[in-house]
Design brief:
Strand content: 25-35%
CATH class: Alpha Beta
Number of strands: 5
Shape: flat
Distance between the termini: 47 Å
CATH topology: Double Stranded RNA Binding Domain
Number of domains: 1
CATH architecture: 2-Layer Sandwich
Radius of gyration: 20 Å
Order of helices and strands: HHEHEEEEH
Length: 156
Amino acid sequence: MKKILILVLIIMQLSCGYHLRSNNNLAENYPVIYLELSSRSLLKRSLSNALISSGVELKNTPLSETTALVVNMDKLRKVIQSIGVNNQVQEYRLEYDVEYRIGNENNKTVHLEKDYSFDVQQIGGGQQEELTLRKQLAEDMAWAIIRQLNVTVSNK
């Protein structure tokens, strides 16, 4: 019975798509990075923290030993998903697109989106939920860029 339970758990774990993250070896290939991104960008703090967590040293000015990580486009849109019978918006989607390049590599893009419900009766809660989702999207985007950079590094 115990063997069957273990087998079922293993199958469930494999079928849900769970897998360990690959190694974060970004700092081995890019030990010092100059991040070129508007200070007003929602992504600035999240990407800086993700790079530092990855072991990368950030510089404020581009020097000869630094690799430039340039964010060319950083665009967050709010799109109406559905309208209720009373002609009021019920759901929105936040779509986040970023285009960047590191060093002399070609531009790469990342697209993320999140849907959320909106209730006119709870306007304050809806606005707070949107702010929270925007921050989460920026955090997710930063780590998506780190993962994409790691894949680029491991494919070299």
